[in-house]
Amino acid sequence: MGFCAKTTYGLLALLELAGVQAREERLQVAEIAARQAIPERYLEQMMAMLRRGGLLRSIRGARGGFQLARPAREISLLEVIQCLEGASENRPPGASSAEREVIEQLSSSLLEQRLARLQAISLADLLHERDAMLQAQTMYFI
Q1: Could you give all domains of the chain from N- to C-terminal order, each with its CATH number?
Q2: What does pTM read for this prediction?
C-alpha cells in the first residue's frame, strides 16, 4: 500500500524544506516545483493545506517563501498524511458474517500497524535516508 500522488508530492516538498531548515532558508513554491517536477498550481494547494495544518510557516515578500513550522524530527509522516488526506475510516457496507468479521479484523490490524509505523517515522528520518543515499551515489570506486 503506497501513497497517493498528493501525499508523495507533499512529502517531496517537505523534504526540500527540511533540507534547508538548518540554514533557516525559505523556499518558494516555484523553486520546489521545479526541483521535484511537481505541477506548481497543485503544489500551491498542498502547501496551503500544510500551512493550515500547522506544518508550514509562510513568509510574505520578495525574500519570502515557506519554512517548516517545527523541527523536521518533530513532524511525523502520519501527521503529514492526515493533513493532506484526512483521517480515513473504511468500513465496507453489507450484512455481518463471520467471513466479513475476519477480513475486518485483518484490515483493522494492518491499519493499526501502518499508523504506528508512520507515527514513528519523522521527516528527519527520511532526510537522513536521502542524504545517505546521495552520499553512497557519490562514492567512486577504482
Answers
A1: 5-138 (1.10.10.10)
A2: 0.85
